[in-house]
Design a protein that fits this description.
The complex is a heterodimer of chains A (500) and B (424).
Chain A lengths: L2 H8 L2 H39 L2 H6 L3 E6 L8 E3 H7 L9 E4 L2 E6 L8 E3 H7 L8 E4 L6 H22 L3 H14 L5 H30 L7 H18 L5 H30 L3 H21 L33 H18 L1 H11 L1 H6 L4 H28 L10 H11 L4 H25 L5 H14 L1 H8 L19
Parallel strand pairs in A: 1-2, 4-5
Antiparallel strand pairs in A: 1-6, 3-4
Helix pairs in contact in A: 1-2, 2-6, 2-18, 6-17, 8-12, 8-15, 8-16, 8-17, 9-10, 9-11, 9-15, 9-16, 10-11, 10-15, 12-13, 13-15, 16-17, 18-19
Chain B lengths: L1 H38 L7 E5 L14 E4 H21 L9 H16 L4 E3 H27 L7 H19 L2 H25 L4 H24 L25 H5 L4 H19 L1 H11 L1 H6 L4 H28 L10 H11 L4 H24 L5 H20 L16
Parallel strand pairs in B: 1-3
Antiparallel strand pairs in B: 1-2
The chains are: A mainly alpha (500), B mainly alpha (424).
Chain lengths: 500, 424
């Protein structure tokens, strides 16, 4: 039962009605804050896109306008009458004189005669303003020019982000109408490719996000999802290529299970050490991460190396492939639905079973849990093993669904992004799934944004960080948008520092 | 009541006895390992040469290299470990954790003697690179000590280092002045420290979350700047670096001189900071207040200490120390900025801090351990030791895990570490 539920029941009848009302508002606000957080992050991201574009920035203090008889493009051209109104009726330093396609900037003292012309000379040639001269204006002469340039840059970037992650709306609607009119499905794959790719990217995010969220529920901060992801990939690829001649309905589950077990065991080690010796899981998971990277490096250069190749593992058997659901080039595979099913399972486990209750109790207050007779050791180990298992499954998912072998540079960053995901989803499976789809979408779109608008893909990390900050400190959002918290929000326990 | 107290005491005694036995057996095993792994396969006529002079131009007085017979040295080291193990087993009620230091030293020495049997190994050069590799880790660890002693978990060290490094690169390239660059790195670190402090103290955000957010933000922002500007305008990525400034007289001492006293300014800053922090933390009023705030903020508040002010000051100073670490990467070592160039050094620094039990000197020593493992691995690749280098790279992490589990045990974090303080 949720906290709001308890509040509503314990009060009198009047309180009950009020409780219901505030519950609805609470729910509304629970949605409002994440949405505003994302919107605000996107706005700040837009500002960064504009500010980091030097060409746009130059327009804020340096707008060049050519004097022409008929103005076709008001951003770069100006009529003689307007120019005389806004500019002294003579050439001033900074203006540009164009003679047979050669540009000369008017300056007081000429340093470079190839590109500059002295003021005296310029005034001799042009005693007054006339057609063909280029005058230079500042921001306040025509603020529309720099602002619209900035807007165009942001629009270009975000349009690319949208097209790269969701798809081109026109393309999608034509493809759909062609399909419904004539039954011709040939346009559909390319129209839906971006969106399907977003879901493909979201799949490991869902699983690793769930891994970190499950740790949080037990008060454990699992930074080791990255290493568990590696180990899960290694064990599943090993089962995937070494077992031969098995039917797919045995081989595939076996390979997935291998990933879960590998990651789970890897995660259970820090859990056990935490429970038995008090060694902090943050340090130990960092250590197991590095050990996992080195271990896989050694395995891929030694025992698991594909013959005659650089450090990569052998290809897995086709019987271990996660089935592709659509023809190539769409890489969308059954892993997405597997991840959704796992999310439902984690929800059920955490909130509907005794095991989950114990895990959450230990997370909320280990001392009280011990007093109530809950075995702390067992729960720490179990939670870390489950968490590691989920991260391992994410690794197995990428191997069995996409790559089909283990590359040396398997480094993905999923394990670290997963921390952000779990926070954004407030450690709740449903929240994690939504956050993962958002992240997958952003990551996928960013690739296109990089190629179309030359915005480095790292802008996505900035957006992610901003979203986390706004989610973690909703006061900032409330202050920005001037609304108050209706009531004390129930706090989500994430971690409990180093101690306890 | 007394019964409970007695059972508790009995329990404490049994665990310490057990730990004593475990340690004793561990020492004996180390002795055995030296015998079986190293001494057995070493020929009687082989000699190991340890170079005692740095392989570069130096002001230090030259001393002869140490030449020892390989196998007899191994026998001696093995015997010493045995003796320590037996001694520990015979007095098992009181586990002597300090012996872990000498015993691991014996093991490492044995390993080096074996690895360089019939050849030579430049000891001074290796210790020198140990210190250089340990410097960013040690500074990160000191930053952690600074923040966490006042009760604020600083997981954002990595991000502060990256931001400071990026800032130092740009400012250094623009102004062509290394001191401005160093100063800007400190400012950048301090600003991020301030941001962390505002989140932790003003907004009472979970500190691990805000730290993670700052890390992601810094990673994203610096990579963005690097890809968008530094990669395009190469002039922006050439800040230069500090050259070594030998300290007169001290640099003439053999072995110690070339390692400690022929370095650049930032390394001297680390050594000074280390001593200053130790004294400040344990022998001044500021240190007492800091520790009080980290252990029991309510009690400190009752006594009239301004908890918030102490925390703000400490976290901002901690951020500046992390900034110094970032500045080292640029101005002290590499001389140019690369994306994600910290490569987990902040993380390792935090591990070193915990390993060193939240004390400046402990943090520094454990940073040296990581630095040593790092430089050892580089050296051994040259010596062609028949162990895959991946396992050697793993070793420091494994050792950390073992030591954390066995020796440090329940790590003594400041009691209020990570908990926001709410005034009543």
């Amino acid at each position: 039962m949720t906290q709001q539920g308890v509040d509503a029941q314990s009060g009198s009848k009047k309180d009950k009605a009020k409780g219901k009302d505030s519950r609805r508002q609470g729910r509304l606000q629970a949605l409002l804050v994440p949405i505003l957080a994302i919107v605000t992050a996107l706005i700040i991201g837009g500002v960064i896109v504009a500010v980091s574009d030097l060409e746009v920035m130059q327009l804020f203090y340096h707008i060049e306008k050519q004097i022409v008889t008929t103005v076709k493009d008001p951003a770069t051209q100006i009529s003689l009458a307007d120019a005389k109104e806004k500019h002294p009726d003579e050439v001033v330093p900074g203006d540009i004189i164009v003679i047979r396609d050669a540009r000369y900037t008017v300056v007081e003292e000429v340093a470079d005669p190839e590109t500059e012309m002295s003021l005296d000379e310029a005034r001799k040639m042009f005693p007054e303003l006339r057609i063909g001269l280029v005058i230079v204006q500042g921001f306040f002469d025509d603020p529309k020019v720099p602002l619209s340039a900035a807007w165009e840059a942001v629009k270009l970037a975000y349009a690319a982000l949208f097209e790269g992650s969701i798809g081109n709306p026109k393309k999608i609607s034509t493809a759909l109408s062609v399909y419904f009119d004539s039954g011709d499905a040939s346009l559909l794959p390319s129209a839906f490719l971006p969106f399907s790719e977003s879901l493909v990217l979201a799949t490991p995010y869902i699983l690793t996000g769930l891994a970190v969220a499950l740790g949080f529920q037990c008060g454990l901060f699992n930074i080791g999802a990255e290493g568990q992801f590696f180990i899960g990939g290694l064990t599943s690829v090993f089962v995937g290529y070494s077992l031969q001649g098995l039917p797919a309905f045995i081989h595939l589950p076996l390979s997935l299970l291998a990933g879960v077990l590998g990651g789970g065991l890897w995660g259970a080690i820090p859990g056990y050490l935490k429970a038995k010796t008090g060694a902090h899981e943050v340090i130990n998971t960092i250590m197991t991460n590095y050990i996992a990277f080195r271990l896989s490096e050694w395995l891929l250069n030694g025992p698991m190396q594909r013959e005659g190749y650089r450090p990569v593992s052998p290809e897995i058997q086709p019987s271990a492939y996660l089935p592709q659901l659509f023809p190539s080039p769409i890489r969308f595979h059954a892993g997405f639905f597997l991840a959704l099913a796992v999310a439902v399972f984690v929800y059920w486990l955490l909130f509907k079973t005794t095991i989950g209750f114990e895990i959450r109790t230990v997370g909320a207050n280990p001392h009280a849990a011990r007093y109530a007779g809950i075995n702390i050791t067992k729960n720490y180990v179990l939670a870390m093993a489950l968490s590691g298992g989920l991260a391992g499954l994410a690794g197995a998912n990428d191997i069995l669904g996409l790559i089909h072998y283990m590359p040396n540079a398997f480094y993905s960053g999923y394990g670290f992004d997963a921390i952000a995901l779990a926070l954004l989803g407030k450690s709740h499976p449903a929240g994690v799934v939504l956050a993962a789809i958002l992240f997958g979408t952003l990551r996928n779109g960013a690739t296109r944004m990089q190629s179309v608008a030359q915005i480095p893909i790292d802008i996505i990390s900035i957006l992610q960080a901003l979203i986390i900050i706004f989610m973690a400190a909703p006061e900032i959002i409330r202050w920005l948008y001037r609304f108050r918290a209706e009531r004390e929000e129930t706090e989500t326990v994430f971690t409990r520092g180093w101690g306890a | 009541m007394t019964a409970i107290a007695m059972t508790k005491q009995v329990k404490a005694v049994t665990t310490s006895t057990r730990r004593g036995y475990i340690l004793g057996i561990l020492y004996v095993l180390v002795g055995l390992a030296i015998l079986v792994l190293f001494a057995r396969g070493t020929g009687a006529d082989l000699q190991t040469t340890f170079g005692m002079n740095p392989g570069r131009r130096t002001q230090a007085i030259r001393i002869p290299d140490a030449v020892v017979p390989s196998r007899n040295t191994l026998y001696l080291l093995s015997a010493l470990s045995f003796v320590m193990g037996i001694w520990q087993l015979s007095r098992s009620q009181r586990p002597a954790t300090w012996m872990l230091g000498p015993v691991s030293l014996f093991f490492v020495l044995a390993f080096l003697t074996w690895a360089a049997r019939g050849g030579s190994l430049n000891m001074v050069g290796m210790l020198e690179s140990t210190l250089l590799r340990a410097t960013p880790i040690a500074l990160a660890a000191l930053s952690g000590v600074m923040c966490e002693r006042s009760g604020v978990v600083n997981i954002a060290i990595e991000g502060m280092m990256l931001t400071a490094a990026c800032t130092a690169t740009i400012v250094g390239s623009l102004t062509h002045n290394l001191w401005f660059a160093l100063f800007s790195a400190l400012i950048a670190g301090g600003l991020l420290g301030g941001l962390l402090a505002i989140f932790a103290i003003r907004f009472k955000v979970d500190q691990i979350i805000s730290g993670t957010a700052i890390n992601i933000l810094s990673t994203g922002a610096t990579s963005f700047i690097s890809a968008r500007f530094l990669a395009v305008y190469q002039d922006l990525n050439s800040p230069g670096k500090f050259t070594g400034v030998p300290i007169p007289i001290l640099s003439k001492i053999p072995v110690v001189g070339p390692i400690f006293f022929e370095n650049n300014v930032i390394l001297y800053m680390l050594l000074v900071l280390l001593i200053v922090m130790h004294i400040m933390l344990f022998y001044t009023r500021w240190g007492l207040r800091t520790r009080a705030v980290g252990e029991h903020p309510r009690a400190a508040d009752t006594l009239g200490i301004n908890v918030f002010k102490i925390r703000y000051v400490n976290v901002i100073l901690g951020g500046m120390v992390a900034g110094l670490s970032g500045a080292w990467l640029i101005l002290g070592s590499v001389g140019r900025f690369d994306e994600l160039m910290t490569a987990g050094k902040g993380c390792i620094g935090r591990a070193a801090m915990i390993f060193g039990k939240w004390t400046p000197l402990g943090a520094f020593s454990s940073s040296l351990l990581f630095g040593f493992a790092d430089s050892l691995q580089a050296k051994l690749q040259i010596l062609k030791v028949p162990i895959p280098s991946e396992f050697l790279l793993m070793a420091p992490y494994l050792v950390t895990m073992v030591v954390l589990a066995g020796v440090v045990g329940r790590a003594a974090a400041p009691a209020a570490d990570g908990q926001p303080y709410e005034k009543q």
